[in-house]
Q: What sequence folds into this?
């Protein structure tokens, strides 16, 4: 199912991405109608690493992650200026089908949102969607094991996914997202609706998963970024031109961002002087 | 009750207060009066309902047996007989009505809820459906008379079904639209995130998730349609014969129905027919009850 489409949008060797970068996201401007939501940000997402997006609320970190797999196309008035390079293809090229982009990038949302169907069917959903021909049960078990949920649900695979607890539902959503083995998993505040124990489990899971998947993680919890992320992008809001426009302030290794931030703004945010 | 000395000690200097319920306080009295009033009004409201049911069970139940369910209606002075053909006729015509209104209604609801919720056409359709819910049922009958009975030249089961479909359609459309809109946006986002096209989101997630709610609406429409008399008077009329005979269905001929049978027989001067009308009323109410209960059971089966 990872068959890259035949009509590729080739990118010339001159602006080739640095090695190891799976998604090279260069944003000039993201519009919602006339309103500029995010401007001038460049985030390279490296393979096999967790890249976290932090910043005060309204800084556009979710918008940025959702524009990677073109989820924002569903929002009226959304317009993207810039380039998102996924391996060697431009996600926003005119001949790219957003539906296929989304099949290559799994997504986990803020609110656990399993489908109203059995646990098994939830995980098998993406496989069936992609007409997977192999052993479905095996892949479902594998995904549930990877999502650290197998032991809790192996005896009730036929029960409805919505009957699980919030934390279990979110792990089910992660299992659903990774069952098709996407190259990238986008997580939009995956633990913000969960209690501390469930959050811990999700975090351990993320660290476990990065051996196989590249993860982009939006979080409002700085401690979480510090615990799990390899790279961190710090966003802030610019309210100067009577709007709220988010932009990237600083990008770097998580350790460097937290211990030795180069920008004044980052320093203030990390110290908790504003949020 | 005596207060313990150690408690008395700790109450020293504190302001005295009393947590006991006082019955004579205006607040308590008003609350009591209101409760009693509500009970009385509820009892009065249920008197007509219960008396109708009581009459049906007592007078209809007297005659209810296997014979009335399986035999043809009797002529003037005949004894015995039943209304088997009317039960079949009602079920067939409600079935035809359902076959027309359910697919159209659900597809229209999918358009209204998912494809073009804010489009001009959706607003117009929604307005029409809301107006049609209040449509006097006799007008549905006249309409079906004009476009089917006059054209085909005969009263028939399809004409009756058509008239019922007209009455069922708005209920199906509006309840199905509501049910489809209840599917959380979160769940739809998850489906889009998995790489579903819009039509896949609708067919794989939105429709199955909303199905119990849609079926509730369908059952309510069916229950309403099976009790309708006026539209059938113009379109199916009545018949003293079986709809299916010798393995052939006489669809293009006047067709019996329970409601029209009740209408006809209750006005007759013969004791036998009047008893049959009571029994038919009970059967019809039981039929509606079954559809209503089905809708509740289906509606409950969601998470």
A:
């Amino acid at each position: 199912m990872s068959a890259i489409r035949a009509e590729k949008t080739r990118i010339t060797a001159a602006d080739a991405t640095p090695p190891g970068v799976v998604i090279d996201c260069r944003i000039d401007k993201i519009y919602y109608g006339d309103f500029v939501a995010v401007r001038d940000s460049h985030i390279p997402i490296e393979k096999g690493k967790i890249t976290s997006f932090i910043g005060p609320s309204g800084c556009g970190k979710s918008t940025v992650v959702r524009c990677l797999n073109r989820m924002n196309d569903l929002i009226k008035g959304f317009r993207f200026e810039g380039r998102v390079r996924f391996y060697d293809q431009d996600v926003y090229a005119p001949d790219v089908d957003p539906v296929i982009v989304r099949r290559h990038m799994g997504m986990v949302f803020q609110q656990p949102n399993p489908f109203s169907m059995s646990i098994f069917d939830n995980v098998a959903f993406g496989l069936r969607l992609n007409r997977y021909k192999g052993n479905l049960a095996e892949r479902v078990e594998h995904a549930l094991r990877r999502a650290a949920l197998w032991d809790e649900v192996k005896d009730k695979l036929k029960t409805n996914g919505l009957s699980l607890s919030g934390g279990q539902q979110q792990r089910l959503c992660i299992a659903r997202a990774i069952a098709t083995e996407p190259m990238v998993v986008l997580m939009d505040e995956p633990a913000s609706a969960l209690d501390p124990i469930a959050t811990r489990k999700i975090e351990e899971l993320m660290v476990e998963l990065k051996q196989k998947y590249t993860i982009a993680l939006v979080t409002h919890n700085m401690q979480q970024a510090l615990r799990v992320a390899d790279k961190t992008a710090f966003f802030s809001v610019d309210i100067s031109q009577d709007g709220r426009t988010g932009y990237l302030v600083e990008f770097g290794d998580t350790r460097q961002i937290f211990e030795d931030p180069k920008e004044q703004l980052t320093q203030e945010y990390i110290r908790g002087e504003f949020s | 009750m005596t207060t313990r000395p150690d408690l008395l000690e700790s109450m020293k200097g504190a302001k005295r207060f009393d947590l006991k319920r006082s019955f004579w306080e205006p607040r308590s009295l008003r609350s009591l009066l209101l409760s009693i009033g509500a009970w009385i009004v509820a009892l009065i409201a249920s008197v007509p309902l219960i008396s109708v049911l009581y009459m049906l069970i007592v007078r209809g139940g007297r005659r209810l047996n296997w014979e009335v369910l399986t035999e043809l209606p009797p002529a003037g002075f005949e004894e015995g007989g039943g209304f088997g053909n009317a039960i079949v006729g009602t079920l067939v015509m409600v079935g035809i009505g359902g076959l027309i209104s359910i697919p159209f209604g659900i597809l229209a609801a999918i358009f209204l809820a998912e494809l073009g919720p804010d489009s001009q056409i959706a607003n117009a359709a929604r307005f029409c459906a809301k107006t049609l819910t209040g449509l006097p049922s006799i007008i549905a009958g006249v309409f079906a008379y004009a476009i089917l009975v006059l054209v085909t030249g005969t009263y028939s089961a399809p004409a009756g079904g058509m008239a019922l479909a007209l009455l069922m359609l708005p209920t199906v459309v509006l309840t199905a639209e509501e049910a489809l809109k209840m599917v959380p946006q979160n769940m739809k986002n998850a489906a889009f995130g998995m790489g579903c096209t819009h039509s896949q989101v609708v067919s794989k997630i939105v429709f199955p998730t909303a199905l119990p709610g849609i079926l509730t609406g369908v059952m309510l429409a069916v229950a309403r349609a099976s009790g309708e008399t006026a539209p059938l008077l113009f379109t199916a009329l009545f018949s003293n014969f079986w709809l299916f005979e010798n393995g052939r269905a006489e669809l293009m001929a006047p067709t019996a129905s329970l409601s029209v049978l009740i209408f006809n027989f209750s006005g007759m001067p013969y004791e036998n027919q009047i008893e049959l009308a009571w029994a038919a009323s009970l059967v019809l109410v039981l039929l509606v009850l079954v559809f209503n209960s089905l809708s509740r059971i289906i509606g409950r089966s969601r998470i």
User: Anything to note?
Assistant: Chain A touches chain B at residues 69, 71, 74, 99-104, 106-107, 109, 111, 113-117, 125-126, 129-130, 160, 162-163, 173, 176-177, 180 (CB under 8 Å).
